[in-house]
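Morning, I've got a small favour to ask if you have a moment. I owe you a coffee for this, so here goes:
>
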Amino acid sequence: MNRRLLLAATAATSLLVAGCSSTGIEQYANEKPVLDLQQYFNGTLDAYGVFTDRSGAVVKRFTVVMNCSWTGDEGVLDEDFLYSDGTLQKRIWRLRKTGEGRFVGRADDVVGEAVGESRGNTFRWGYTMALPVGGKPSDAPVPPPPPPPPYFPRCCRL
């Protein structure tokens, strides 16, 4: 009985939070400092990240060195990944600015075009990645995450 009540309360709370939240980034338009992607992704950057399973448990960590350059509205992000299991990967993004705060990009392991939007100090990027699953190719959507609250750091230049 208590378990059912807990599940019902959790579901109701999730619906309430989802109904009240906005996944748009317009709310960050006035946040400072303004993120200029062409300036930020210029030169060499070091970054890190994690992959999690559906429960949120970290299953793999990685570091990446990015060599970035722009010519006008065309950019290249040349990424070299090192994963916690010792594997290496290279991804080269070719980006294009399509309008004020709007970008598209392509990479060899991305299906179609990635689409991004920038407002204030926030950038959202969504794409579908071609990943092998069980030895067979499969497309995995990588939706843009909901924007973080204003006090959350958006990016780190190491």
Remarks:
- The chain has a mean pLDDT of 80.
- The beta strands are 43-52, 58-71, 74-83, 88-99, 102-106, 110-119, 122-133, 136-142.
